[in-house]
Design a protein that fits this description.
Shape: flat
Largest sheet: 5 strands, mixed, barrel
Strand order of the largest sheet: 5-6-7-9-8
Helix content: 40-55%
Distance between the termini: 81 Å
Structural class: alpha/beta
CATH class of one domain: Alpha Beta
Radius of gyration: 39 Å
CATH architecture of one domain: 2-Layer Sandwich
Number of helices: 22
């Protein structure tokens, strides 16, 4: 059947929607197939093939080739769309199960088919193609700054019109709190995700991400794109305050001044875009301690103690600057923590000094007792940063020889005494454990026997509380212990925990 109208429809839809003609042809074929199936009383299978050049189309009725089904007396389950292999081979001896048998039937008239059905199928296919096209176009733009016009606002969620029938979505939690947004406003956001979905939004934008702050500075500060300034990180309390770390790659350039701009013009543009969010520009420093001090601005840090193991720093500030260092609701120290990656603890300088002196005195006394040295030598060791006997025992000799007044004889003697003290301590700890008696609560516990309780005590598990802190794997080393019994013992030992929780 020839129909030039099909060519016209394909041409119009393709041009108006900027969609590949092949997709439109497939949609029309689906519509014609649906109309063909609807015309028959039984549920047949149909296939329509359109000639892309002439608009001619042919309709075929199809049957799936299946094997005999013994449950239905050797017949097929769906006679309208299935045919037995034996019957199919009468026409084609080479046909196999799973193949399709088809024969040409009368085609429905494209002009007389249910117009609504055809239209719906075509529109559905076109929409699917449009959505795929959007995903493909924006997939490579994830992480970029996106500008759009507010199309509508629903329960705090914002839909943006990006132009070209493209829509983006900003969830309520990704909007700056208390920001006054109205329909028709032009706003920017950070494209954080592109998802291919059949329905609903596909482009997800954030106005709260730190990356948005970085992208805005890239836009406002040409030196960043030129490579003269590097942005090392950012932290935000959306709508309130933010910190951004910058590094100058040209010694002749002031990176902070360049980001601030003439009379604050550049940073003010960013602030205006972020609903008045105040931005502190921080000078990055390769020294992590100095970087933290910079990040805590405007607060002045009097002293800093670094704990590498805990990845934390204790910052001492004067009593007058304490509230400023912490910030409203802990804002300043929280942003500095996010920016630097260190856990920061702000302390009153007076209290910090008292704490430091107390710790130093405690360590000095430890050295006096365990190393059998006088107060002067013990204090020198403390001043040089030694905190434990282990450090003295195993630190490289060169480090101790670098201490003023320490010669090789003294260093070797100190190291020898430190190792002896550690050995005595280890032996004493082992003897204490081996001779330990199980506590009454462990002995009386349900499921416990005397031998097991004493064996546990020899391994340092003396009380029910000790047992409650163990895992099943920890207990499997004991004699005749199974996973089931270990689990029951641990849960019994933990019963007081649950009782306390329910009481609260």
């Amino acid at each position: 059947m020839a129909n030039k109208e099909i060519l016209l429809v394909a041409e119009v839809f393709s041009n108006e929607k900027d969609i590949d003609k092949e997709i439109v042809y497939e949609a029309i074929e689906s519509a014609l197939e649906a109309a063909t199936i609807k015309r028959h009383t039984n549920h047949i299978k149909a296939r329509v093939i359109i000639d892309r050049k002439s608009g001619d189309y042919v309709t075929y009725r199809q049957w799936d080739v299946v094997d005999v089904n013994p449950e239905i007396d050797g017949d097929v389950e769906f006679p309208a769309s299935q045919i037995l292999l034996e019957a199919a081979r009468m026409d084609d001896p080479n046909i196999q199960i799973g193949d399709v048998v088809q024969e040409e039937i009368e085609s429905v008239d494209f002009g007389r088919i249910a117009a609504q059905t055809a239209k719906q199928v075509i529109i559905h296919k076109v929409r699917e193609a449009e959505r795929r096209k959007i995903v493909e176009a924006y997939q490579s733009r994830v992480g970029e700054l996106i500008t759009g016009i507010v199309k509508r606002i629903e329960k705090g969620n914002v839909f943006l019109d990006l132009g070209g029938h493209v829509e983006a979505f900003i969830a309520k939690e990704d909007m700056i709190p208390r920001e006054a947004i109205r329909n028709g406003d032009r706003i920017r956001g950070y494209l954080k995700e592109v998802r291919s979905e059949a329905r609903g939004p596909q482009l997800f934008i954030s106005r709260t991400a730190p990356e948005l702050l970085i992208a805005l500075f890239r836009l406002e500060v040409p030196e960043v794109n030129e490579g003269l300034i590097s942005i090392m990180g950012a932290a935000r309390d959306p709508g309130s305050r933010a910190k951004i770390a910058v590094k100058g790659n040209d010694p002749r350039l002031d990176p902070v001044g360049a980001c601030v701009g003439m009379r604050g013009s550049r940073v003010q543009s960013v602030t205006n875009e972020l609903a008045g969010e105040r931005v502190d520009i921080i000078l990055w420093n390769p020294s992590e301690a100095q970087f933290v001090i910079n990040a805590m601005a405007p607060a002045e840090i009097q002293s800093i103690v670094v704990d590498e193991d805990k990845h934390s720093m204790d910052l001492a500030v004067s009593s007058e600057n304490l509230s400023q260092a912490i910030g409203r609701g802990g804002q300043n120290v929280r942003l500095a923590t996010q920016l630097t990656g260190w856990e920061l603890n702000v302390l009153d300088a007076t209290k910090a000094e008292e704490k430091s002196e107390a710790e130093a005195s405690k360590i000095k006394q430890l050295f006096v007792e365990q190393l059998d040295v006088d107060d002067d030598i013990a204090m020198i060791l403390v001043d040089e940063g030694f905190n434990t006997v282990e450090e003295i025992a195993y630190v490289p000799i060169s480090e101790m020889l670098a201490i003023e007044g320490f010669d090789e004889t003294l260093v070797n003697e100190l190291r020898s005494r430190a190792k002896d003290a550690l050995l005595i301590k280890a032996i004493a700890a082992e003897e204490t454990i081996e001779s330990a008696e199980p506590a009454d609560d462990l002995l009386a516990m349900e499921g416990m026997d005397d031998n097991l309780a004493h064996e546990m005590a020899s391994q340092g598990i003396i009380t029910m509380e000790d047992l409650a802190e163990q895992s099943i794997d920890d207990l499997l080393g004991f004699k005749d212990m199974t996973e089931d019994r270990a689990g029951k013992l641990i849960m019994k030992a933990r019963e007081p925990w649950f009782a306390e929780t329910s009481g609260e």
